[in-house]
Amino acid sequence: MATTGMGYGSALTSHFPKSNSLIISLLPSNPIKSNTISIVTPHFLSPRLKIQTKSIITAATIPSTGKLEEVLPPPLDSTSDPPPLFDGTTRLYISYSCPYAQRVWITRNCKGLQDEIKLVPLDLKNRPSWYKDNVYPPNKVPSLEHNNEVRGESLDLIKFIDSHFEGPSLFPSDPMKQDFSGVLFSYFGSFHKAVTSSFKEEGVNAETGAAFDYIEDALFKFNDGPFFLGQFSLVDIAYAPFFERYIPFLLDVKKYDVAADKPKIAAWIQEMDKIEGYKQTQTDLKLLVESYKKRFSTNV
Ligand SMILES: N[C@@H](CCC(=O)N[C@@H](CS)C(=O)NCC(=O)O)C(=O)O
Q1: Do 78 and 130 contact (CB within 8 A), yes or no?
Q2: 226 vs 154, 218, 236, CA distance in Å?
Q3: Which CATH number fits domain 75-170: 3.40.50.720, 3.90.420.10, 3.40.30.10, 3.40.109.10?
Q4: What is the 3-state secondary structure (H, E, C) of 142-191?
Q5: Residue limits of the GST N-terminal domain (predicted)?
Q6: What residue ranges do the domains of the chain occupy?
């Protein structure tokens, strides 16, 4: 069992990486420089994100599926030139730490669109002014530049990418499942509010507990797989980045194990961790917990 140094519970240990990601350079006769840095400080868990330091250097890693894992570009900041906007390239503007952007990034990966949709990470704390002025006036991430238009809102974007791009469908054709997806997409706002309502309070309140009960019940709805709609879908993608943040924060700060006595949630977490397109987007858990602690510093 992995030891995390943060007292993670048994049901949750599978959520955490056990060792540093293995970087295997392709083409050994023509070695590719794996000139990458981590966006995180060294600590007990392996950083998942490998950020390229120089744009001319390429590198590749092979996860267990054999699919190429990309080395990620460095975030652009206020000193960075804009990309050549509206030149026909489809660009996904994200921040590596944003859970909303992560939804769209996962969707892009799971559909195998790494070549078709170029990632443009931004440093949100030192945002380039051209982003608001010329790309996306709401000045938030994610946004998608495609066919001379820029659109935003993560839930709209994951549906847009799923229906307008090649790759495996991430939305079921079964009308009952489609209906339930609507329920779960709508529930997300209440869920997020209910879970974070405990963050500034002592302990974990009943609202938070009820929200996880709701999720556990939802996972019982279809029995043809461990995901919200049975098979893996956009609904799992919508929730995963938030669970990724809630789980370690609640466990570390509140000693609250989200998956305790919740076998469906425990199984869902385990299965999500096997999705390559998601794994490639997972960020550093200790950093997440630290940033949540800073944000919710009173009475945690
Ligand atoms: N409802 C939006 C929320 C996006 C959002 O709030 N993104 C944050 C980063 S996690 C952001 O860009 N914040 C910048 C700001 O508000 O200035 C979505 O689902 O895409």
Answers
A1: no
A2: 24, 11, 10
A3: 3.40.30.10
A4: CEEEECCEEEECHHHHHHHHHHHCCCCCCCCCCHHHHHHHHHHHHHHHHH
A5: 88-169
A6: 75-170, 175-295
Cα 126 to middle of ligand 1, angstroms:
15
Name residues whose C-beta falls within 8 Å of residue 186's C-beta, 6 or more positions apart in sequence.
none
Query: Which residue's C-alpha comes closest to atom 6 of ligand 1?
Result: 140
- Give the predicted TM-score (pTM) of the model: 0.81
CATH number of 175-295: 1.20.1050.10
* DSSP character string of 279-300: HTT---HHHHHHHHHHHT-TT-
Neighbouring residues of 68: CB distance < 8 A, sequence distance ≥ 6: 60, 61, 62, 114
Identity of the amino acid at 194: A
Instruction: Kindly state if the Cβ of 142 falls inside 6 Å of ligand 1.
Output: yes
CB 105 within 8 A of CB 119: yes
Ligand 1 pocket test, pick from 95, 106, 141 with the greatest ligand atom count within 8 Å of Cβ, gives 141
140: Cβ below 6 Å to ligand 1? yes
CA 102 centroid distance within chain: 4
DSSP 131: I
CA of 297 to the centre of ligand 1 (A): 21
